[in-house]
Specification:
The structure is a single chain. The protein is mainly α and about 425 residues long. The protein is built from 23 helices and no strands. α7 packs parallel to α9 and α16 runs antiparallel to α17.
Length: about 425
C-alpha cells in the first residue's frame, strides 16, 4: 500500500487499495453503504474534497488504517471545519498524542478563519478530554501558537491550565509552584474568576512548600478581589501561614474571622488550631487536654493532624508511656492517601517520622528506623527535601552515635529508597 506522503489523491488511495484487495466497486458499496457512483467519482478525483465521514467509511471497509487517512487529510486539507471534525474523531478514538497534536496544529493554521477564533474554539474543547497527557500537549500547543501570533489571553489561559495539571504531580511541587508564579506576568489577561482562583491556588501551594510569606501575599490578593468561593478558604490559609511564621496574634485574628463562616469542618479546624496555638505559646497542659478531647469525637479528616500534635507534645516532654498509648490506640489507615492533596501526604509523612522517633526513644531501633525511612519516602513524594533529609540523618546518626552497622533489613530499605 502506498503511504500518505506519496499519495496524490484520496481517490488513488481507495482505488489502489481496492484493486490490491480484489474488491469490486459493487462489493465496496455493499461493505460501506456508500453509493457506487459516489465511490467511482471519488476514485476518479471528480469530487475534489470528499467528505471525511464518507471517506472514513470506505477506508474502514478496506482496512486502511485510520492514521493513514488522517495523515492524508492533514497533508492536503486547509478547511478549518473539516480539520476540526477530524481532530474530534482522533480524540474520540484516543489516537496517539502525536497525531492529535499534528491535526490540532494544522487546524490552528487554517487560512479561512481568524487565528484568535481558531485558538478559542480549540481551547474550549480541551478541558473535557480525560487523558491528561493529551490535554497537556494541546495546552502546550495553545501556548506556543498564541506566543507566535501574539494572542495574549490564550498565552495566559494556556499557562494557567497547564499549571492546574502539573501541580498535581506532588514530586515536583517546587518546580510547578514557580511555573504558577510565572503566570502572574500575564494575570491581567485572565478573566476575574480565574485571577482569584490562581491567587488562591498559589497561596495553598506556597503554604504546602512552607513559603509562608508568599502564601500570605497570594491569599490577601484573593480577599482584595471581594467575595468569591475561595474567600473563606483563603482566610483559613492566612491563619495557617501566620501560624507557620510564628505570628500567633495574626493567626488568631484570622482564626476568629474563619470560624464566622458556615462551612463544613470549620468548627473542627478552629478547635485544632486553638490547641496548636496554645502549645506554641507554652500552654502545653491545656493543649494536651484539648487535643485528647478533640481526638475522641473529631471526624476522620482531623485524626492524623491531631494525633501528630499530641505525639509531638508527649515526645517533647518525654512522656513515652502516653505516646505509646496514642500509637497503639490510634492506628492510621493509609488508604486516605488516595486524596489528591499534598497536605494530606505531608501529615502522613509526619506521622511516620514521629513513630520513628518514638520507637528509637523506647529502644526499638529496627521499628524506629523502618518508620523513619518510610517517612523519608513519603516526604520525597511531596518534594519536602528538608524533612526527608531529617529522617535520613536520624537513621545515619543513630548508627554512628551507637557505633553499629546497619542490618540487612535497613540496607534493603535504604536501597529501595534511593532507587525509587
Amino acid at each position: 500500500m502506498k503511504t500518505a506522503s506519496i499519495i496524490k489523491t484520496i481517490g488513488e488511495l481507495i482505488h489502489d487499495t481496492r484493486f490490491a484487495s480484489n474488491i469490486t466497486i459493487t462489493q465496496l458499496s455493499e461493505l460501506s453503504g456508500i453509493n457506487k457512483g459516489t465511490i467511482s467519482r471519488i476514485e476518479k478525483s471528480e469530487i475534489k474534497r470528499p467528505d471525511f465521514s464518507t471517506v472514513r467509511l470506505l477506508t474502514t471497509s478496506l482496512d486502511i488504517p485510520f492514521e493513514t487517512l488522517v495523515d492524508y487529510y492533514v497533508e492536503k486539507e486547509k478547511r478549518s471545519d473539516l480539520l476540526f471534525d477530524i481532530l474530534q474523531a482522533t480524540i474520540l478514538r484516543r489516537s496517539s498524542t502525536e497525531l492529535i497534536r499534528k491535526v490540532a496544529a494544522k487546524y490552528l493554521e487554517s487560512p479561512n478563519e481568524e487565528s484568535l477564533d481558531l485558538t478559542e474554539k480549540l481551547y474550549k474543547h480541551i478541558n473535557p478530554i480525560e487523558d491528561t497527557s493529551m490535554k497537556l500537549s494541546l495546552y502546550n500547543l495553545i501556548i506556543e501558537h498564541s506566543r507566535s501570533h501574539g494572542i495574549m489571553p490564550y498565552i495566559s489561559k494556556g499557562l494557567y491550565q497547564r499549571y492546574l495539571i502539573e501541580r498535581n504531580d506532588f514530586s515536583k511541587l517546587k518546580e510547578t509552584y514557580y511555573s504558577g508564579k510565572y503566570i502572574l506576568n500575564y494575570i491581567d489577561f485572565l478573566p476575574q474568576h480565574e485571577k482569584i482562583e490562581l491567587y488562591y491556588k498559589l497561596g495553598i501551594h506556597a503554604l504546602n512548600l512552607k513559603h509562608f510569606q508568599e502564601s500570605i501575599e497570594h491569599c490577601k490578593n484573593v480577599l482584595v478581589h471581594g467575595d468569591s468561593p475561595y474567600k473563606v478558604h483563603a482566610v483559613g490559609v492566612l491563619r495557617d501561614a501566620y501560624f507557620g511564621l510564628g505570628e500567633y496574634k495574626e493567626s488568631e485574628l484570622y482564626s476568629i474571622q474563619y470560624k464566622q463562616f458556615d462551612y463544613p469542618h470549620i468548627r473542627e479546624n478552629t478547635l485544632l488550631m486553638e490547641a496548636l496555638i496554645n502549645a506554641r505559646q507554652g500552654r502545653v497542659d491545656l493543649s494536651v487536654q484539648q487535643l485528647s478531647s478533640f481526638l475522641e469525637k473529631c471526624s476522620s479528616d482531623f485524626v492524623v493532624p491531631a494525633t501528630n500534635q499530641l505525639l509531638r507534645l508527649y515526645l517533647q516532654r518525654k512522656e513515652l508511656e502516653q505516646a505509646g498509648r496514642i500509637i497503639e490506640n490510634g492506628a492510621i489507615d493509609p488508604s486516605f492517601l488516595t486524596q489528591s492533596n499534598p497536605l494530606v501526604r505531608s501529615r502522613y509523612a509526619d506521622h511516620l517520622q514521629l513513630k520513628g522517633e518514638y520507637y528509637l526513644a523506647v529502644g526499638e531501633p529496627e521499628k524506629g528506623i523502618s518508620y523513619l525511612l518510610d517517612g523519608a519516602m513519603e516526604y520525597s513524594k511531596i518534594n519536602d527535601t528538608i524533612e526527608e533529609k531529617k529522617c535520613i540523618n536520624m537513621v545515619v546518626n543513630y548508627h554512628l552515635g551507637n557505633n553499629i552497622s546497619m542490618n540487612k533489613g535497613t540496607l534493603e530499605q535504604l536501597d529501595a529508597y534511593f532507587t525509587t
